[in-house]
Specification:
This protein is mainly alpha-helical. The protein has one domain. The chain is built from two helices and no strands. The chain is extended and about 40 Å long.
Length: 80
């Protein structure tokens, strides 16, 4: 199976700077992904909507989760 980085950057015309682990390793305890990408305006809107929906899906999980571990969560998606 391909590495997560390869899957996410397969169509990127720009070099990317990423930190990740292979999906098949089962070691996704810590997940880091960063990339500089070029997109159409239409795709920017589609990705923004997907990210917003993802945040909306995880917020209830976070709210009801017992306080056992401390994690940082950040997401940036912005134009340059």
């Amino acid at each position: 199976m391909e590495k997560l980085v390869t899957i996410l950057n397969r169509n990127s015309p720009l070099p990317s700077f990423n930190t990740s682990v292979p999906i098949e390793s089962g070691q996704l305890e810590n997940l880091h992904y960063s990339s500089v990408i070029s997109l159409s305006k239409q795709d920017v809107q589609q990705i923004r909507e997907i990210l917003i929906k993802t945040i909306e899906r995880i917020k209830p999980i976070i709210q009801r989760s017992p306080e056992e571990t401390l994690y940082g969560f950040s997401m940036d998606f912005f134009g340059m």
